């Protein structure tokens, strides 16, 4: 009963599905790799990556991975409290707070993560590789670095 309630409050969004191959003696074996973002649109978000023989199984496995790796971020008036930057492998992401009415200025994987986290006003820029997996992990790293507002000095904002 509790699992049904937790399933209802989280939303998931498939960011990317790729067909990947493994070369074996008889030729190529194809599988699918899915990148999924899961969030409650209230400050909790997670990213999962998984492979399987078919797309639906890959998506459900990736969703389970995302739920295991939730992070809690401080959302203040629909935005983040301060500018934050993070890098993961080749992916490099910059997130800046924005005023009310700005919207989510982001593309691709960053937009999906920001919306699932409940951010309504944020400016973002992807500075490194366009690889969706690295960008997703860099965005999660950046959101994990955010410090709640009372602890932030006002010089940085």
Largest sheet: 4 strands, antiparallel
Q: What is the number of helical segments per DSSP (H or I, 4+ residues)?
A: 4
From the 3D structure, determine the CATH topology of the largest domain: Ribosomal Protein S5, domain 2
Shape: elongated
Average pLDDT number: 90
Classify the helix fraction into a percent range.
25-40%
Mind telling me the C-alpha Rg? 17 Å
Describe this structure in words.
By secondary structure, the chain is of the alpha+beta class. It has two domains: 2-71, Double Stranded RNA Binding Domain (2-Layer Sandwich), CATH 3.30.160.20; 74-151, Ribosomal Protein S5, domain 2, CATH 3.30.230.10. Helices cover 29% and strands 36% of the residues. It contains four helices and eight strands. A four-stranded antiparallel sheet has the order 1-2-3-4, with helices on both faces. A four-stranded mixed sheet has the order 5-6-8-7. Strand 1 and strand 2 form a beta hairpin. Helix 3 (108-117) runs parallel beside helix 4 (132-144). It is elongated. The chain starts with a helix and ends in a 13-residue tail after the last helix. The model has no long low-confidence stretch (mean pLDDT 90).
């Amino acid at each position: 009963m509790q699992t049904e309630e937790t399933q209802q409050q989280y939303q998931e969004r498939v960011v990317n599905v790729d067909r990947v191959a493994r070369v074996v003696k008889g030729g190529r074996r194809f599988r699918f790799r899915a990148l999924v973002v899961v969030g409650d649109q209230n400050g909790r978000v997670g990213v999962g990556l998984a492979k399987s023989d078919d797309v639906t199984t890959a998506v459900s496995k990736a969703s389970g991975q995302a739920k295991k790796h939730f992070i809690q971020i401080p959302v203040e008036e629909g935005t983040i409290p301060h500018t934050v930057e993070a890098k993961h492998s080749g992916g490099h992401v910059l997130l800046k707070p924005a005023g009310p009415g700005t919207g989510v200025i982001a593309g691709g994987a960053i937009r999906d993560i920001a919306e699932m986290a409940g951010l309504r006003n944020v400016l973002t820029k992807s500075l490194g590789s366009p690889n969706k997996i690295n960008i997703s992990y860099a965005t999660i790293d950046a959101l994990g670095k955010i410090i709640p507002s009372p602890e932030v000095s006002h010089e940085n904002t």
